[in-house]
Write a structure and sequence with these properties.
Elements: H1 9-23, H2 31-42, H3 47-61, H4 74-86, H5 101-109, H6 130-145, H7 149-169, H8 174-191, H9 194-207, H10 217-236, H11 241-245
Helix pairs in contact: 1-3, 3-4, 3-10, 4-5, 4-10, 6-7, 7-8, 9-10
Length: 247
């Protein structure tokens, strides 16, 4: 018997069964996944569109880096809902959703975070959000273990960005972790020599040949970024922040 909230079974279970089929393992939505999915259901997001976003995420991350939660798929889900919104096929029903464009979709698709306990820039470490402490510790450890200055500098940039995100937003949840991860990947990319960047871009382009044709521009962009992320982490042995933190 399902223990999911009454009235949510159809939407949640469609996503649950679809994720199970793609991942090849039984998927039970975690409380964090439910906290992300239930607002989408309330705002009228089509389950089929959410599933298409999940499928794009699986395609982008590849066999070795399959998503382990719906939260990891949210950029692709957002891209699919944005495409529907632009075509007039999806309008979030939330009263406080912005009126137009990508901001409206972002409001509907960004995982919620609690902002009730803002922390000051000078707050002692024990007052920092637990996820922020885990993130900073993981980046620090990776930096100490690195044998190249360019990667140590990339980790320093990622560490500073994580701290800045927490200070700017007054909290550090999934959105901030994902933004810190993107900043870290960008720092990895900038640390490469021009020839290394060109080689990686050519390899990614060869992998994606023809594969982006039917995607929306945003989904195609997320797909390329996911491939770049995977290539950087695997080729240079850099830290996978999301996997290390367990998200």
């Amino acid at each position: 018997m399902s223990h999911l909230p009454p009235g949510q079974l159809g939407f949640i279970e469609q996503v649950q069964y679809f994720f199970t089929e793609l991942s090849g393992r039984t998927y039970i939505p975690s409380p964090k996944d439910l906290a992300y999915l239930l607002p989408l259901k309330e705002q009228g997001a089509p389950a089929a569109a959410v599933c298409r976003g999940i499928e794009e995420a699986f395609r982008a991350y590849g066999e070795a880096e399959r998503p382990r939660s719906v939260r990891q798929c949210w950029p692709f889900i957002e891209a699919e809902l944005e495409r529907l919104a632009e075509s007039g096929l999806y309008v979030p029903s939330a009263d406080d959703a912005p009126e137009c464009g990508s901001e409206r979709v972002a409001a509907a698709t960004s995982p919620p975070s609690t902002k009730s306990n803002p922390s000051s820039k000078n707050a002692p470490k024990h007052d920092e959000p637990e996820l922020l402490r885990e993130t900073l510790d993981a980046i620090e450890e990776a930096g100490r273990a690195s044998g190249e200055e360019r990667w140590r500098e990339a980790y320093r940039q990622g560490w500073r960005r994580a701290k800045a995100l927490s200070s700017e937003r007054g909290d550090f949840g999934f959105e901030e972790l994902e933004a810190a991860d993107r900043a870290l990947i960008e720092a990895y990319w900038e640390a490469l020599k021009a020839a290394e960047r060109q080689e990686l871009e050519e390899a990614i382009a060869a992998q994606l040949a023809g594969g982006l044709r039917d995607m929306s521009p945003r989904a195609a962009r997320e797909h390329r970024l996911a491939r770049r992320r995977k290539a950087l982490i695997e080729r240079y042995g850099l830290v996978d922040l999301l996997r290390l933190i367990g998200w």
